[in-house]
Specification:
With about 325 residues, the protein is of the alpha/beta class. It has two domains: about 1-130 and about 250-325, 3-Layer(bba) Sandwich (FAD/NAD(P)-binding domain); about 135-245, FAD/NAD(P)-binding domain. The chain contains eight helices and 17 strands. The strands form four sheets. Strands 1, 2, 3, 4, 5, 6 and 17 form a seven-stranded mixed beta sheet that branches. A five-stranded parallel beta sheet has the order 8-15-9-10-11, with helices on one face. Helix 5 (about 200-210) links the parallel strand 10 (about 180-185) and strand 11. Helix 1 packs parallel to helix 8.
C-alpha cells in the first residue's frame, strides 16, 4: 500500500493547484480523479465561454494565454492539461475513491483500483456531478437531461430549457440559433441577474421579440413522451415537446462529506465545517478546497477566489508536520 503525506481527491483546477503546491513544499502526494484531467470542465458545453478572464483562471502564476479576454472551454482544457503534463504531476485518472477510513496513523483510502495511506487528505471535488433534481413524474425519461453539450443535437426539435442561469441561457440561445424551437420555463420572475452581462441582453431580446418563448413563475408538474406540463400564474400549460434540458444547477456530494465525518450545517445551505485559516475540517487532517467549501451556495467559490486554498492548506500541513516532528 502506497503512503503519501497528502492525498488529493479531485483533479480539477483546484486539485491541480493543490498538487503543485504540495510538490513545491516537498510533500509526497497523489491526486485521485474519477475522470479525465479537469473532468468537470471537460463535461461543460462544447462552446462554453468563461465569465472570468484568462488571468483570473491561472494557477501558480502560470500564464494562461487565450485568443479572447474570456477564454473558452477548449482553451481551458489545453491550459490545465499542459500544467499537469509539463509539471509531471502525480495524478491517477479514471479512478474513483470509494471509501476513506480514519486511522491512528492518518487515513486509509480505498479506490476502485487501489488502496492508499495518507497523513492528510484534501477534498477538492467541486459540485458538477449531482444535479438538482426536479422530482417530477417523467424526469427519468431518456428525453430529459441535466447536462447540455452540443446545440447540433437539438436542431429542428421542440426543446424545453428549465432554468434561468448561465447554463440555461447559453443552451437556449445556442440551440435556437441551430434551429431548435426553444421554450424557457423559469421558476422565478426573471432571467437570473448573475447571467453573463454580455449574454443577458441577448436572451431578453430574443424573448421580447418572440423568438424564444418564456414562462415565468412556472413550476414543472410532469414530463411525458410528447409533452411537458407546468403550472403558471395563468394556470396549467401543456406544450408539445421532444427534449428537455433541466439546467437547474448542481450540488456537492454531501453524502460523501458526511461519510468522511465532516459536519454540515443544519440549514438548507449545508455548509461544511472548516477552519478558514487552515481549511482543515472538524476531522483532523482532512481539508477542503474550492467550491465545495460553499455548500449549496455553489456561486460563492470559483477558480479565481479559491486557488489560494492550495497555498493555505499546504502551508498548514507543512507547519503541522514540523510541530509534530
Amino acid at each position: 500500500m502506497e503512503k503519501f503525506d497528502v492525498l488529493i481527491i479531485g483533479g480539477g483546477p483546484i486539485g491541480i493547484a493543490c498538487g503543485l503546491e504540495a510538490k513545491k513544499k516537498g510533500l509526497s502526494y497523489v491526486i485521485i480523479e474519477k475522470g479525465p484531467i479537469v473532468n468537470s470542465l471537460f463535461n461543460y458545453p462544447v462552446n462554453m465561454q468563461f465569465f472570468s478572464s484568462s488571468e483570473r483562471l491561472e494557477i501558480d502564476n502560470i500564464p494562461f494565454i487565450s485568443k479572447e479576454a474570456k477564454p473558452k472551454r477548449n482553451e481551458a482544457l489545453e491550459y490545465y492539461r499542459r500544467i499537469v503534463t509539463s509539471n509531471q504531476l502525480n495524478i491517477h485518472l479514471f479512478e474513483r475513491v470509494l471509501d476513506v477510513e480514519k486511522t491512528p496513523e492518518g487515513f486509509t483510502i480505498i479506490s476502485d483500483k487501489s488502496k492508499y495511506a495518507a497523513d492528510h487528505i484534501v477534498v477538492a471535488t467541486g459540485f458538477y456531478d449531482l444535479p438538482n433534481m426536479l422530482n417530477v413524474p417523467g424526469e427519468e425519461l431518456s428525453k430529459v437531461s441535466h447536462y447540455y453539450k452540443d446545440p447540433h443535437f437539438y436542431a429542428s426539435q421542440k426543446l424545453a430549457v428549465i432554468g434561468a442561469s448561465n447554463s440555461a441561457v447559453d443552451a437556449a440561445l445556442e440551440c435556437w440559433r441551430k434551429g431548435a424551437e426553444v421554450t424557457m420555463i423559469i421558476r422565478g420572475p426573471e432571467v437570473g441577474q448573475r447571467v453573463k452581462y454580455w449574454v443577458r441582453p441577448d436572451i431578453l431580446n430574443r424573448i421580447n421579440e418572440g423568438s424564444i418563448a418564456a414562462y415565468y413563475n412556472a413550476e414543472i408538474k410532469e414530463i411525458t413522451e410528447k409533452e411537458i406540463i407546468f403550472i403558471t400564474p395563468d394556470g396549467e400549460q401543456r406544450i408539445e415537446n421532444d427534449f428537455v434540458l433541466a439546467l437547474t444547477g448542481y450540488m456537492p456530494n454531501f453524502a460523501f462529506l458526511e461519510r468522511l465525518g465532516i459536519t454540515l450545517s443544519d440549514d438548507a445551505n449545508k455548509f461544511p465545517e472548516y477552519n478558514k485559516d487552515t481549511m482543515e475540517t472538524n476531522v483532523p487532517g482532512l481539508y477542503l478546497a474550492g467550491v465545495i467549501c460553499g455548500g449549496m451556495e455553489t456561486h460563492k467559490w470559483f477558480i479565481e477566489n479559491s486557488r489560494i486554498h492550495a497555498k493555505i492548506i499546504m502551508k498548514a500541513i507543512q507547519e503541522k508536520s514540523a510541530s509534530e516532528a
